Amino acid sequence: MPSKVEVELSDGKIFSATAAAYRGFTSQPLDWASACEKFDRLVTPFAGAELADKIARTVHELDTHSVRDLTALLAKVPSQRHISAAA
Question: How many CB atoms sit inside 10 A of residue 52's CB?
Answer without folding.
Answer: 21
